[in-house]
Amino acid sequence: MSDTIHTECFDETPTRVVSGQGALESSRACLAGMGIDRALIVCGGNVGKLPEVEAFTRACEGCIAIEVFSGAEPDPADRNVLDGGAVGRDFAAQVVIGIGGGSSMDCAKAIAAEIGREGWITAQDRPGEPTQIEHDVPPIVCVPTTAGTGSEVNPFSVITFAQTQRKLVLNHEKLFPHCAILDPRLLVSAPKMVRVAAGLDALTHAVESYVSKRATADTRRRAGESIRGVAKYLKRVAEDAEDMQAQAGLQRAAMIASLSFAHTRLGIVHAMALPLSALFGVPHGVANAVLLPHGMRFNCETEPEHFAAIAAALGVKTEGMSTEEAAAAAPEAVEALAREVGAPATMSEVGVEAGAIDRMADDAMKSAHVQVNPREIAREDVVTIYRAAM
Ligand SMILES: [Fe+2]
Q1: Which H or E run contains 373?
Q2: pLDDT digits (tens, 9 = 90+) for 263-299
Q3: Ligand 1 centroid to 35 CA: how many Å?
Q4: How many A from CA of 194 to the centre of ligand 1?
């Protein structure tokens, strides 16, 4: 059933990473080792029915009591956090296990903080101010079912506050997961476009982190490793969800990108992708996929050496090319990869209307990602890029 399970620690995160086929089922022993006998699982509606999750719950019977809160919605809202927190407190949960994509894991992190103090989430609707957690938070375990967000090893939790319609990134060291469980068998049930979008989200994290104003030699090493991983495994994952070696490789690449961007933040592509999701419901990874080559072209001339290195990491044979030629090959390589895996190429293909470009540009310019983009961004640049991506 299970192959070898590996446990690793990284300098960039306090999260212990347990990986391998069957890692979820075998994590029961790890929980027992933490002295835990009451666990709250946080997930979306369908995840609780996955055979691997059922097997884990069965494996816990007799030693760990499990309560499931399946109310983590896509783009989780403060209401989900309040509800999950109440369930966790009533159950006296000692650990919160988030199983799912980024939304479920982010929701689980916030629920863990909410368990420690009722009403905590409501007080966090303060844009531009640091997240405050002065109370104890039960340990968080994250179990991704997509290879994209990297939320399993970072301290971020994106929550939408319904009353003010603000989508805020909470960020606090107490939101770092205690443990991340990377079990590639959990990735199999996602439809092809979900797998592709998640992988291209991970690639966008790695590319934007590589050239961020905050990048260091260490973050670039991680980002480069991630880019090579996506280039190597995304096509295989798109073609065959049962390719366990490729799924594990892509899952690792997504996690490694997160180790990098947790320190650097992202850039113009993520800033511009947010309004596509907010106004037209375009899935986050798809929005990034459409915009990434355009954002790279915008940044290329500012950071040619780094884009040349990105081209090489994507598999472009850059020997004999000038730095500028190699840099220009990077967005081409991303476009070719996106085409090969069947990702949409234009904003109109995914339902975005050109009439919204002005409003989207205003919204994109408010994103904190704009500050760390390597090239200064004017509102007119954002409009030009949106038009090019239509
Ligand atoms: Fe992202």
Answers
A1: none
A2: 999 999 999 998 998 889 898 899 999 999 999 999 9
A3: 35
A4: 13
Measured distance CA(280)–CA(295) in Å, rounded:
20
State the pairing for strand pair 95-100/38-42.
Answer: parallel
Q: Which of 126-130, 239-243, 300-304 has the lowest mean pLDDT?
A: 126-130
- Give pLDDT, residue 2: 47
Specify the pLDDT at position 50.
79
Q: Is the pTM of this model over 0.90?
A: yes
Q: Please provide the DSSP assignment of 241-265 as one string.
A: TT-HHHHHHHHHHHHHHHHHHHHH-
192-389: CATH topology: Dehydroquinate synthase-like, alpha domain (1.20.1090)
Give yes or no for a contact between 81 and 121, defined as CB atoms under 8 angstroms apart. Answer: yes
Checking if the pLDDT of 48 tops 80, the result is: no
Report the distance separating Cα 344 and Cα 349, nearest Å: 6
Cβ-count burial of 232 within 10 angstroms (0-12 exposed, 13-18 middle, 19+ buried)? middle
Q: From ligand 1's centre to the CA of 161, what distance in Å?
A: 19
Give 314 Cα–ligand 1 centroid separation in angstroms: 19
Please give the CATH architecture assigned to the domain spanning 6-186: 3-Layer(aba) Sandwich (3.40)
Per-domain residue ranges of the chain: 6-186, 192-389
